[in-house]
């Protein structure tokens, strides 16, 4: 059945990202999801965003961060667990320790909610940081 095909874990392709998100392994099931009526999953979204990033000019790559699909899912869980601000900052800092936010102009966050994908694009990120940090 189509549902079983979409879950086939047989690896068929690997893509080494240039945005710091590691290697994406695509499976036979991922490719079945690309058929009409298929539902996109995390790997397909990560792959598409990684391909977009790899096609950016090198100077623009230095100013753009595309977070993996895991970020919103993990961060959203901490928020839903009603964590205090220090816990939120600690969690985000741990997950994003490799990101130099001071060098960024744009941060892209893929979001999956209620079976739908969207993307948040945070522009002028350095100004957002400065506004949030009252010590600057």
Task: Give a structural overview.
The mean pLDDT is 83. The protein has seven helices and five strands, in the order αββαααβααββα. The chain is globular and about 55 Å long. The chain is 43% helix and 22% strand. β4 and β5 form a beta hairpin. The protein has 136 residues and is an alpha+beta fold. α5 runs antiparallel to α6. A three-stranded mixed β-sheet has the order 3-4-5. Strands 1-2 form a two-stranded antiparallel ribbon.
Compact description:
The chain is an alpha+beta fold and 136 residues long. It has helices spanning 2-6, 28-32, 42-54, 58-61, 69-80, 85-95, 125-132, and strands at residues 11-16, 23-27, 64-66, 106-113, 116-123. Strand 4 (106-113) and strand 5 (116-123) form a beta hairpin.
Could you outline the blueprint of secondary structure elements for this entry?
Layout: H1 2-6, E1 11-16, E2 23-27, H2 28-32, H3 42-54, H4 58-61, E3 64-66, H5 69-80, H6 85-95, E4 106-113, E5 116-123, H7 125-132
Parallel strand pairs: 3-4
Antiparallel strand pairs: 1-2, 4-5
Helix pairs in contact: 5-6
Radius of gyration: 17 Å
**What structural category arises from helix and sheet content?**
alpha+beta
List low-confidence stretches.
none
Main beta sheet = 3 strands, mixed
Percent of residues in beta strands: 15-25%
Reading the helices and strands in chain order gives HEEHHHEHHEEH
- Percent of residues in helices: 40-55%
Number of helices: 7
Total beta strands = 5
Mean pLDDT: 83
Distance between the termini: 58 Å
Order of strands in the sheet with the most strands? 3-4-5
Q: Characterize the overall form.
A: globular
